[in-house]
Amino acid sequence: QVRLVESGGGLVQAGGSLRLSCAASGGTFSNAALAWFREAPGKERAFVAAISWSGDSTFYGDSVRGRFTISRENAKNTVYLQMNSLKPEDTAIYYCAADHIVRKRPEDYEYWGQGTQVTVTS
Q1: In the predicted model, is pLDDT for residue 65 greater than 90?
Q2: Percent helix, strand and coil across the chain, each rounded to 5?
Q3: 98 in Cβ contact with 2 (< 8 Å)
Q4: Using one digit for the tens of pLDDT, what is the confidence trace for 81-116?
Q5: In Å, what is the CA distance from 58 to each residue of 30, 42, 111, 114?
Q6: Residue 34: which of 91, 90, 111 has the closest Cα?
Q7: Which residue of 64, 79, 111, 117 is most buried, as measured by CB atoms within 10 A?
Q8: Tens digit of pLDDT for each residue in 1-55?
Q9: Tell me, what DSSP letter sits at residue 25?
Q10: Pairwise CA distance, residues 73 & 58, whole Å
Q11: Are 5 and 116 contacting, i.e. CB atoms less than 8 angstroms apart?
Q12: Which distant-in-sequence residues (6+ apart) come within 8 Å of 54 by Cβ?
């Protein structure tokens, strides 16, 4: 059973930065595609970023491209999301997800973390 635990969320002013981490256990992490999604109040869960099992391929949602960077460290079973130039509209609960291949729809991911809150004030 794969378990994902996010951390690193918090309160930050617009223009600031945060780095989210997602630690995985219970599965073959190095073979998994990993992704970040976010869910703002009253909105559907949305794709943020994804990374292939090798780390060679990364994908980003239009609203975060150029500001966010996804990376992974297989030796530590951890995936990161570096978030720079944060905006109030980035406020959401951020979820880590894992599955066999990279996808952009939340319904395609089997394993999920519990989420971490990110709040950006203006």
Answers
A1: yes
A2: 10, 50, 40
A3: yes
A4: 999 999 999 999 999 999 989 999 999 999 999 999
A5: 15, 28, 19, 23
A6: 111
A7: 79
A8: 789 999 999 999 999 999 999 999 887 777 889 999 999 999 999 999 999 988 9
A9: E
A10: 14
A11: no
A12: none
Residue with tokens 């609960």: 93
Q: Is 46 exposed, middle or buried (0-12, 13-18, 19+ CB in 10 A)?
A: middle
Measured distance CA(8)–CA(44) in Å, rounded: 22
114 phi/psi in degrees, rounded to 5: -85, -15
What is the Cα–Cα distance from 21 to 64, expressed in whole angstroms? 17
Q: Cα separation of 34 and 99, whole Å?
A: 7
Distances (CA, A) of 50 to 10, 56, 58: 21, 11, 6
Q: How crowded is the C-beta side of 108, counted as CA atoms within 13 Å?
A: 14
